[in-house]
Amino acid sequence: MTLPETPVGRLRWAVADTRTLTGRALAHWARRPGEVAVGLLFPVMVVLMMGYLFGGQMDVPGGGGGYREFIMPGMFAMTMLFGIETTFAAVAGDAAKGVTDRFRAMPTSPPAIIAGRGAADLLHSVAALAVMAVCGLLVGWRAHEGAARALAGLGLLLLLRFALIWMGVYLGLVAKGPESVAAVQTLVWPIGFLSSALVVPDTMPGWLGAIAEWNPMSATVTACRELFGDPGPTGGSWAAQHSVLLAVLWPLVITAVFFPLAARRYRVMGR
């Protein structure tokens, strides 16, 4: 096969291969519906557990619709964060089985290999957000500020997921196999819980609350609460007052760090 020499030709080649590899990932999920269903329903279980078992013991800042409305933006963001494990396992599994090396040996556009995984995982995240939104509506959550602001909040959630995809790709490429997912969970869970997703940072010790407020997760969660009109802390810190700005900047920073790292790691594999 003669590889394209012009920039337009290379772009078309990359787009076509990205579409093919995205379809490959989606086909894998279609053949394992049970595994996909469990992944989509796990956050629902957490919402029900936190909302109905522990929600009565929680003081909700700002009042509003209660603890379940308070945690829904947090669980939206947690679902995006948990997606790192899905990305990691898929990338590490392909690398361990030699699939990645076979792609490298074929006339496949190099950017398409990681872009295809990214596109598939982003589509999976859209489905996860849809499931979580239905769950939220059933337990009493509402977006009170209109459709435009609700869509903006969902956009920020997907922007966070887009950034975390490249972190998952990079970690999957440097890992020794999919069994290392336990190490990723050790990273993901503290990031998720050391935030404003499920609790108010003001209830933490001062230094720990400051870390939680500047957590990228907290920026997205706080911004979504503001855009949805859901109850949430009304802290006077700079991070709390500029949450929407931070919810855009943090994912851009994460992408700027991990996308080049993932691309470089892919280029040097097997050397």
UniProtKB/TrEMBL annotation:
Keywords: Antibiotic resistance, Cell membrane, Membrane, Transmembrane, Transmembrane helix, Transport. The keyword Transport applies. It is found in: Cell membrane; Membrane. The chain crosses the membrane at residues 36-55, 75-96, 122-144, 150-173, 180-200, 244-263. GO terms for cellular component: ATP-binding cassette (ABC) transporter complex. InterPro entries: ABC2_TM, ABC2_TM_bact-type, ABC_2_transport, Nod_factor_ABC_transporter. Pfam families: ABC2_membrane. GO terms for molecular function: ABC-type transporter activity. GO terms for biological process: response to antibiotic. The keyword GTP-binding does not apply. Residues 34-269 form the ABC transmembrane type-2 domain. It comes from the Bacteria. Its main location: membrane. It is a multi-pass membrane protein. Belongs to the ABC-2 integral membrane protein family. This is Transport permease protein. It comes from Actinomadura litoris.
